[in-house]
Specification:
The protein is of the alpha/beta class and about 725 residues long. Helix content is about 40%, strand content about 15%. It is built from 25 helices and 21 strands. Strand 3 and strand 4 form a beta hairpin. Helix 9 crosses helix 10, helix 10 packs across helix 24 and helix 12 packs parallel to helix 13. The chain binds adenosine-5'-diphosphate and magnesium ion. Magnesium ion binds next to helix 13.
Length: about 725
């Protein structure tokens, strides 16, 4: 197993060195089977390499041990050595706390705990010295330490002496088995001493030289055992560089591979339907951004390579018309077009707006959703099979096994982040040809995410709103300002406008949320009584006919107010609605709020968005609300969202495992990501299989990382 222990080092060949790092963690001195199982389960550490990749989450300066009498700063960290005595329990059951005295030669200071009592009571022996690290706080005019880190003090402790000490995360279970932060640090230090020299380099000397990177070995050393801030920074930079670099290599290589393999349908002509529509039926002039994007899509679809393009455009930027024009090109070339939406409401809206746009054109279009009646469904399926249907719009119902589309040339997926990657693949499989794929999203994606999450797609952006739009004005109100709100609403209704009122509906608190909505609705009925006012209600628990009925009342202006849950979030388009009131706005995520606000501001009048919350707000909620009030810029909002929540949440999907960078932070590393993408892209261009001598390190690392069973001959 360990070549280090069994054979002289000189006999370790490259592969052995790598094997060394792939050793099971239980073979590391000080671990053993029991702790290994725990490390595996709680921290995902199975091998030596995994442990090396277990990076500190922060660093503390422990270069010095203070004396109790030196403790003088509020909220300042100190490290002390002393004895613990005088454990006392205070207070009633619900407000219990434990205190103890911590004493060194210079004095005594109080320690306080509010939980973990059992553990504390048995932990300290009166005659032993402990090393304490914690933040001093003032309470009753005296300093104390609340929940300090405490370990037995070992005079020979090697770790003191490093001026910056890594803090490693560790679960309660790990702590109870002697795998707290300090022990983890010790294990890693031993491991580095044993294997540090055998960490194989992953980049070429050229790259390392050009970008002034630390060698990988020393980066690993300094990330765990930094002697100062500046070397730590360099280590971090190098390791992030690697993370992003190999990620991008895989993305770009995958993209290139796919382009080589999947010959796309060639749409050689832009024909009668397109021209007829463009010249005679376009309801408005396209914005420059729309024109540019249509051109990009046209070029893709004529290239002979399967299109995989992401179309980003903020809410209201006019993606629908772009989708339609693209579909017409597919039709002109004898193919069918598919448009898939994440919700029934949205599919219906697309169906209605597209049907109405093409009503003068000679083509067949149908809607297929979960609630399509079976007789009608049979006909649609038959017409899809025979190819007599030109455009099919629908929901997930479209990807059911029995739906066979004879000749799909273009698949458009709206709001892609709600579809899993697997579902996307399923769509591609339809029929024998690879249809072109256009993914549309209204969630503006920060550049860093676009370069990572969607790194294998080409990206088009509609970065211009149709002319004449006034930015929505957003304000934040508290419940005691409700009267003001009501008179404002009455005024807007008197001017002929319509209003949305949105309530949260979150699975975990569904019942309570529905009660909120119900109560809100009833109080609205009092403030906006019939027959002067009509209010409709739409929420996810309703039957789809009922939903549809209520939506229609709003669309036909029979109701002035729509009370709804987030089902209206995506895509709903009623230009006459100019006020969006969001109740419990603090319970919505930023991108959701932005989507909701995008429902108004679609007509020519000034629109308003009113965010209502209680006074008590978390820091994050405050930040979200401030951001909404401050800006309408979807990209800026997306960046704040990314910083607040991290990439997985931001994308509204839990399957963003591929974006779990260990060190990389998408909200801060834009520069680095851009730079690395360029470097990776140049490498894939020049040497896609990493065959050049100088790229041997990259090649080996790539294979190791992705267990590349990749057929290396494919790209040539
Ligand atoms: P989204 O990108 O949110 O899907 P839509 O395609 O629904 O946006 O368009 C929003 C609204 O703007 C629709 O009412 C649409 O008819 C209108 N619209 C789209 N493009 C233009 C344009 N170039 N000029 C004027 N109005 C437009
Ligand atoms: Mg839309």
């Amino acid at each position: 197993m360990l070549c280090i222990q069994q054979t002289p080092l000189v006999f370790c060949y490259l592969s052995n060195m790598i094997n060394l790092l792939e050793n099971k963690i239980e073979y590391l001195k000080g671990v053993g089977p029991k702790r290994a199982a725990l490390l595996n389960k709680e921290a995902g550490i199975a091998t030596f390499l995994d442990l090396l990749n277990y990076f500190p989450f922060r660093y503390i300066d422990k270069s010095r041990i203070y004396q109790v009498r030196e403790v003088s700063g509020d909220d300042v960290y100190y490290q002390l050595v002393g004895r613990i005595s005088n454990l006392k329990t205070h207070g009633a059951p619900r407000t219990t706390r434990i205190t103890a005295s911590f004493t060194d030669e210079s004095g005594t200071i109080e320690l306080v705990w509010f939980k973990g009592f059992k553990w504390i009571k048995n932990k300290f022996e009166p005659n032993r010295k402990y090393l304490l690290f914690g933040k001093a706080t003032v309470f009753n005019n005296k300093f104390n330490f609340v929940h300090p880190e405490i370990d037995l003090y070992d005079e020979t402790d090697q770790l003191l002496g490093e001026s910056l000490q890594g803090v490693y995360s560790s679960s309660e279970n790990m702590k109870s088995q002697g795998l707290g932060s300090r022990q983890m640090a010790r294990l890693i230090k031993n491991l580095l001493a044993q294997t540090g020299d055998y960490i194989p380099e992953t980049l070429s000397n050229t790259l390392i030289g050009q970008h002034q990177l630390l060698p990988l070995k020393s980066a690993y050393h300094h990330i765990h055992l930094p002697s100062d801030q500046s070397i730590l920074k360099k280590a971090l930079y190098r390791l992030k560089f690697d993370e992003y670099f190999f990620f991008q290599l895989r993305m770009l290589r995958g993209k290139k591979l796919r382009e080589r393999q999947s010959r796309g349908v060639v749409f050689s002509t832009v024909g009668a339907l397109f021209h007829n529509f463009y010249n005679n039926h376009l309801p408005f002039g396209l914005t420059n951004a729309q024109k540019r994007v249509v051109k990009e899509i046209r070029a893709d679809m004529g290239s002979g390579i399967q299109m995989n393009r992401l179309l980003q455009g903020d809410v209201g930027s006019g993606k629908t018309i772009v989708a339609l024009l693209s579909m017409l090109i597919a039709l002109d070339n004898g193919y069918q077009a598919v448009l898939m939406a994440p919700t029934e409401i949205l599919a219906v809206q697309h169906f209605q707006s597209i049907s109405s746009l093409v009503r003068e054109l000679p083509l067949q279009i149908a809607l297929l959703t979960g609630s399509t009646r079976s007789a009608e469904r049979k006909i649609i399926e038959e017409n899809l099979r025979t190819g007599s249907l030109n455009i099919i719009i629908g929901t997930h119902a479209l990807i059911e096994e029995r739906v066979v589309i004879s000749n799909p040339g273009l698949v458009i997926i709206d709001e892609q982040h709600r579809f899993g990657v697997a579902q996307r693949a399923r769509l591609w499989e339809k029929g024998s040809v690879s249809p072109h794929v256009l993914v549309m999203t209204a969630t503006p994606i920060p550049r860093t995410l676009a370069m990572t999450q969607y790194g294998d797609l080409d990206v088009s952006v509609i970065d211009e709103l149709p002319p004449g739009r006034k930015p929505v004005q957003t304000i934040h109100l508290y419940p005691n300002q409700r009267l003001k709100l009501i008179s404002f609403m009455r005024k807007k209704i008197a001017e002929g406008r319509q209003i949305y009122i949105v309530y949260p509906l979150i699975k975990e608190s569904e019942k309570l949320d529905l009660i909120n909505l119900q109560e809100g609705y009833e109080s609205l009925l009092r403030d906006f009584p019939e027959p002067d006012y009509q209010i409709c209600v739409v929420h996810g628990q309703m039957k789809s006919e009922d939903k549809d009925w209520e939506m229609q009342r709003f669309i036909r202006k029979q109701a002035q107010i729509m009370v709804a849950t987030t089902v209206i979030e995506v895509g709903v388009d009623v230009p006459n609605a100019s006020v969006m009131v969001i109740e419990h706005a603090d319970r919505f995520g930023l991108s959701q709020l932005h989507q909701l606000r995008g429902r108004v501001g679609r007509g020519a009048e000034q629109s308003h968005c009113i965010l209502i919350t209680d006074h008590k707000l978390t820091a994050d909620a405050k930040k979200r609300l401030e951001t909404m009030v401050r800006t309408n810029d979807g990209f800026e909002i997306a960046s704040v969202d990314l910083a607040l929540r991290g990439p997985g949440e931001t994308m509204g999907t839990r399957q963003s495992g591929q974006l779990d960078f260990k060190l990389g932070d998408l909200s801060r590393d834009e520069q680095l990501i851009k730079q690395v993408r360029l470097i990776a892209s140049a490498m894939i261009q020049e040497d896609p299989n990493f065959e050049k001598e100088e790229n041997a390190a990259v090649r080996n690392a790539y294979k190791r990382l992705y267990h590349a069973s990749t057929d290396w001959s494919r790209i040539g």
